[in-house]
Design goal:
single chain; alpha+beta; eight-stranded mixed beta sheet
Length: 345
């Protein structure tokens, strides 16, 4: 136990030693879709849940294209109408056709289709809606509070240290759900996070106004294109904004010279139809780049903790699986944590 405690310690832990300790049943690290989903389900089952988000909502995040499988989860959360109000109706995905034009894969034609649509969402709005909804459901949801340490306690549970606007704070939690996203807090502390050596892509992306959209029922499609060194996405968002990004293989990323915007625009320009659809577009957000794209942790759970969403693993998002996997996994984790708290044996 002592070895595990030292392994998970953080240098910042010392600064929290004098902070008073609060008790909770479940402490959730991260206030994104996975954290808000797990928190809401657990709070509805009567547990005292604390959710700590290091940033302040709204904040920028990638992963804006949802799947029909997200819809039943939103219904169960009671947040479907709230998300519908801030989303773009998405009836499918389209890919270029060899003979010109494009092919649409419509959700309504899926095998065992349970929902004929999904939404495209600004993650800043989507994450804020789910975070606020969790608070309305009884979660003690706090922003601008960064977890610095998770240390196992001799009698079970964990002592969680954090820093917030009012200084150091601590919680004694019976269970910890790590939904810290790509920070992979526990994975990093336990040194169980591993790169996926078979898929080491990176991405460069931003938001643009004035990108040409499909017509009619296809207007909300996500469009996927291949380029010589990876693939490109165009995701229609509310208010005429489009999320545009290029996923690139590592060797190509190493050729980047100068600013990220120039690299992104040059890459988009290698696909004629993308260049045509963006001919009148103007950038309306910062350009972001992310590397170390795919990874997984060698463990998903241990005594008193569980990893959900990107805190456990991240895979290539071509088919928009990320938010669904995060929310689906969070729902399953909530079931497991609920059962473990009720019957520890």
């Amino acid at each position: 136990m002592a070895d595990v405690r030292r392994e998970m310690q953080s240098p910042a832990e010392d600064s929290t030693n004098q902070a008073p300790v609060e008790d909770c049943d479940v402490l959730v690290i991260g206030g994104g879709p996975a954290g808000s989903t797990a928190s809401t389900f657990l709070a509805r089952r009567g547990w005292r849940v604390v959710m700590l988000e290091k940033d302040a909502h709204p904040r920028f995040h990638i992963g804006e294209s949802l799947l029909p499988m997200n819809m039943p989860i939103l219904e169960r959360l009671g947040a479907f109408d709230k998300v519908a109000a801030i989303g773009v109706h998405k009836s499918g995905a389209d890919f270029p056709a060899d003979e010109g034009g494009y092919n649409v894969f419509r959700f309504e034609r899926a095998l065992d289709a349970r929902c004929d649509h999904a939404f495209q969402v600004r993650r800043s709005d989507f994450d804020r809606v789910l975070f606020d909804h969790a608070a309305e459901c009884g979660v003690d949801a706090r922003q601008c509070v960064r977890v610095t340490a998770v240390d196992p306690l001799p009698g079970g549970g964990s002592l969680v240290g954090a820093t917030g606007p009012d200084g150091p704070c601590r919680w004694r939690a019976r269970y910890v759900v790590d939904a810290s996203g790509r920070d992979a807090f526990i994975g990093g502390k336990r040194r169980i996070k591993r790169k996926n050596m078979r898929h080491q892509s990176a991405a460069v992306f931003s938001h643009f106004e004035g990108v040409e959209r499909r017509e009619g029922t296809d207007a909300g499609n996500v469009s996927i294109y291949r380029h010589e060194h990876g693939w490109i996405w165009l995701i229609p968002l509310p208010d005429g904004v489009t999320s545009v990004g290029a996923v690139c293989y590592p060797d190509y990323m190493k050729t980047r010279r100068g600013d990220s915007e120039g690299f992104l625009m040059r890459t988009l320009g290698t696909v004629p139809e993308v260049a045509r659809r963006m001919a009148g577009a103007t950038r309306c957000a910062d350009v972001h780049a992310t590397g170390n794209y795919a990874y997984e942790c060698t463990e998903m759970a241990g005594a008193g903790w569980v990893l959900v969403g990107d805190a456990y693993c991240f895979v290539d998002p071509m088919f928009s699986s990320g938010v669904f996997l995060a929310m689906h996994g969070a729902g399953k984790a909530a079931d497991m944590v609920d059962a473990a708290l009720r019957e520890p044996a």
